[in-house]
Amino acid sequence: MKSLSISPQMRRAAAWSVHLFTASGAIAGIAALLAINAEQPRIALLWMLLALFIDSVDGMLARRVQVSEVLPHVDGRRLDDMVDFFNYVLVPSVFMTATGLLAHWTFAIFPILASSYGFSRFDAKTDDGFFLGFPSYWNVVALYGWLLGVSSGLGTAIVIVLSGCVFIPYKFLYPSQMTILWRTNVGLSVTCMAFAVLAVATPEMGRRLYLAELSLLYPLFYLAISFRLGGIRRHRA
Hints:
Elements: H1 8-37, H2 41-65, H3 67-70, H4 76-98, H5 109-120, E1 130-132, H6 138-147, H7 152-165, E2 170-173, H8 182-201, H9 203-209, H10 211-215, H11 217-229, E3 231-232
Antiparallel strand pairs: 1-2, 2-3
Helix pairs in contact: 1-2, 1-4, 2-4, 2-8, 4-5, 4-6, 5-7, 8-9, 8-11
């Protein structure tokens, strides 16, 4: 991808802006925790969805302005991983505990410890555009667990099973690096995210139009494509 035709000073400013944009996801996470503490799960989910949106587009922006070349002394991947662990693991674990999706707070230990291992792996993101093991989408689990009214027993079981899946070297697609069905991926993800936002923000309309269920089309599409193109990674001798 070609870099923008702008001056070096403007390129540096653009690169710093992308890093600032990435870091702002942590601010959305803090706002979500404050909403959870104030017993406002709906507001918390909206902040969590904003953090998900930021993470969905910051990689594209980083590649557009070539931040690794303009600011080689700042590790954008490390920054992204730190923000992601906060927003994808810690915040949703607190949310699931506070909203009763887990039978007891101690069950939050499973996703936190499993994802600590997952995020620390050098090969967590493969060279061919996959995540290795369940990619710690605990914010998505929390979102649909709350929207669909999942019981604490079922929620706990789902969390335990998915925590185990972190350790299985199965390849899940990295959405922002998908080349196959790229237009379908982008169009469906944007549409389903809009449905999810409306389902959270306008519960009556969401229930009437089955927006939460419709928004599940993208997770199902993602899993289907991952199962079709991924698979167990085989270690070479």
